[in-house]
Amino acid sequence: MSISVIVVTYNQEDTIGATLDSILAQQIDEKVEIVIGDDCSADNTEAVCRRYAAAYPDRIVYLRRKQNMGVTANYFDCIAHASGDYLADCAGDDVWVDPYKLARQRDVLDKRPEVSLVATDWLCRDLASGALSRSPRNKEVIRTLEFAPGELLVPILTNEITIHLCSAMFRKKIIAEAVEKNPRIFTDPHFSCEDQQILLTLAKAGKIVILPGVSLHYTVGHDSISHPADFARKFEYSLRALRQTLILRHHFELEAEPVRRLERRSLNHLAAMALRAGREANVSRADGRPARLRRFIYRRNLSTPLKARIYLNLMKAPRLWKFINRFRS
């Protein structure tokens, strides 16, 4: 079976070279295709990618976007251009650190047709210091873990378990067929990420295997889609993430209590952010965020948790809010 590696990138001139080097360093007895989706970068990313594409014309497919597509559309268009039966991906600021990553994962998929995805352990790498750390939800993998079809649906949706897609390899056919059948679930431009729906689809379709050993260093400590530095963007990202969770919950028919707990936590978090924004701007409406959150809750017929109700009601009473704010300052 053939392998394609997806690399989506945007304004990553300082890191994309190391990403591509780590993919090209893979020790495997077959040619691996690399599909780069450059989402109309404004820095020197294009020049770096074209240099690599010229050096490896038989291995690298470089897709330069004429205008910004967004990470989700960019990712799935790369999949459409990929020729491999198995897919892996590595973001343009991350690196693979196990030269046998692809070979180990391919061997599992080749030998076990019931397995839909093979992942590995991974670590966070601080962009500034290079220090390595472990995400709180990413426990060390000391032995091979296996999960039955459907077993990880709720843990993935609620982030109780974190499978990093950049540490994984999966069967393209499963995703291609799912995208054709339900394109909105994968290519909705308002979704906050592309990996959650992929992981859920694969977790439903087959067994998930997680191998011991770290294969990925995931870069943290910088402004990104999932870790925005600007406070207003954090609110927007969190609201989009909750909307995505609700849509995926309905699509995969997940009504478990952990999912409802996640929704309550998310609403409390969003209301707290709206309250904080009002405090920092010294205004009661916080640029309309409370009103937007109320509309979001109303249109989806959600039950508002007590804490979120308190926060939102405080924002309705400017004088009371200013009085309380004097003691919080």
Low-confidence stretches: none
Report the order of strands and helices.
EHEHEHEEHEEEHEHHHEHHHHH
User: Which CATH architecture of the largest domain?
Assistant: Alpha-Beta Complex
Structurally, the number of domains stands at 2
The counted number of beta strands is 10
Radius of gyration equals 21 Å
The portion of residues forming beta strands comes to 15-25%
Helicity, as a percent range: 40-55%
| Number of discrete helical segments | 13
Mean pLDDT: 90
Secondary structure layout plus pairing:
Elements: E1 3-9, H1 16-24, E2 33-38, H2 45-55, E3 60-64, H3 71-81, E4 86-89, E5 95-96, H4 101-111, E6 115-126, E7 132-133, E8 145-147, H5 153-157, E9 169-171, H6 172-181, H7 183-187, H8 195-205, E10 207-220, H9 231-251, H10 257-281, H11 289-299, H12 306-316, H13 318-328
Helix pairs in contact: 9-10, 10-12
Can you walk through the features of this model?
By secondary structure, the protein is α/β, with parallel strands linked by helices. The protein folds into 2 domains: 3-220, Spore Coat Polysaccharide Biosynthesis Protein SpsA, Chain A; 231-328, no CATH class. Helices cover 46% and strands 18% of the residues. The chain contains 13 helices and 10 strands. Strands 1, 2, 3, 4, 5, 6, 7, 8, 9 and 10 form a 10-stranded mixed β-sheet that branches. The chain is globular.
